[in-house]
Amino acid sequence: MTILIVDDEPAVLRFLAVAVENHGYEVLRANGGAEALTICECRESCFDLLISDVAMPRMNGRALAECMNRRYPGVPVIFISGYPGSRQLLEGLTARGFEQGFTFLEKPFSTATLLQAIKTALSKADVRAAFILSRPGETAINPG
């Protein structure tokens, strides 16, 4: 499984990437939304899960997730933030193409909390894929 982690703070990005890599996931790191988009444009396949800071300069996490959702519908998202008011930036996402929902983790959080959120997000994505594949009379599609 490949996880794209996006945060504009290098120390946070490094911490998150190492924690996730140490548990067997492949990690793509991006220092912001524009870099995340560039990474995906340069790869044949992109990622299974997006973890993004909400409050970033130039392109916030919501804008990035909306863009990624248009390119890769159904990819699960975990938003992270330590800034007050970040949760309000995410209001209305489920009505704008995020029917699959998303997870929000408030910084600081433990590695265990992060890993549990990853496991839950990926298992929900697997359930959605299995449901899509099991619908009789329809062509199988890959939501990720």
Your description of this structure?
With 144 residues, this protein is of the alpha/beta class. The chain has one domain: Response regulator (Rossmann fold, 3-Layer(aba) Sandwich). The protein is 42% helix and 17% strand. The protein is built from 5 helices and 5 strands. The protein has helices spanning 10-21, 33-41, 61-71, 86-89, 111-134, and strands spanning 2-6, 26-30, 49-53, 77-81, 103-106. The chain has a 5-stranded parallel sheet with strand order 2-1-3-4-5, with helices on both faces. Strand 3, helix 3 (61-71) and strand 4 form a beta-alpha-beta unit. Helix 2 (33-41) runs parallel beside helix 3. The radius of gyration is 15 Å and the shape is globular.
